[in-house]
Amino acid sequence: MKNVVIFGASGHGSVVLDCIEKEGIFKVLGFVDSFKRKGTRINGYTVLGSEFDLPYISEKNDLAGGIVAIGDNWIRKLVVDRIFKILPNFNFVTAIHPTAEVGKDVEIGNGTVLMPGVIANANSVIGDFCILNTNASLGHDGRMEDYSSLAPKACIGGNLLLGKFSAICLGANVIDNITIGSHTVVGAGSLVVGNLDSYTLAYGAPAKRIKTRVIGEPYLSGGKKQSSKSRIF
Fold first, then answer.
1. 37 burial type by CB count under 10 A (0-12 exposed, 13-18 middle, 19+ buried)
2. CA 88 to CA 54: how far, in whole Å?
3. HSE-up of 206 (CA within 13 Å, CB side)?
């Protein structure tokens, strides 16, 4: 099996690790993380160093690529950009848990993760560096643009268009034929019955615009703390 690393030694990184191990295509060498001490052990794997150690790690271990395990869509983009600055030709792999159901003619981009129990229905298109979290369901002919995400148990009807960096949070439901712009967040447990503009925080049943978002604004639990500490990792 080819060697890969996981960027980000957080709880999300542990779930990505589980996906890669059970898929059985790649061998995980360890984690790369800027905020954990080199040599720290997590889930039986070692933190190999920070992103600045990546050229040495890659050369020494015949590295085939890696995957960014950062839940926040915007921070994940910053990590990817930093890696490309250090190694412009770095290869990002995709991880699909074996319990995920991938329908006919589904397209999945580089660096994307499908967690346990995910359903990606027929003819859907999932961009680069996306996350479909545990038991999320993407309806037929849906389209998730780069760096977008579905949280656990998000349930999406057919023909969704989800813009770049947008997130549908825990347990939210979206009816058929909905367009959601870029950098938009749908709050946990919401029901989306109409289109949503870009740069929107929407919440409720039916989901309504609560406020305007700015690029990079935290939206995950504990996000404010994370954003101040983890601009890169």
1. exposed
2. 12
3. 8
Q: Is the per-residue pLDDT at 96 higher than 50?
A: yes
Q: What would the DSSP string read from start to end of 129-175?
A: T-EE-TT-EE-TT-EE-TT-EE-TT-EE-TT-EE-TT-EE-TT-EE-
Residue 160 near residue 175 (C-beta atoms within 8 A) = no
Q: Which residues are catalytic?
A: 140
Alpha-carbon distance of 105 to 111, in angstroms, equals: 19
Question: What is the pTM for the complete model shown?
Answer: 0.93
Whats the size of the chain, residue-wise?
233
| 12 Rama class: left (phi>0) / alpha (psi -120 to 50) / beta | alpha
User: Average pLDDT of 194-207?
Assistant: 98
Q: Categorize the per-residue pLDDT at 145 as very low, low, confident or very high, splitting at 50, 70 and 90.
A: very high
d(CA 105, CA 113): 17
d(CA 46, CA 30): 5
Q: Which residue has the higher pLDDT, 221 or 88?
A: 88
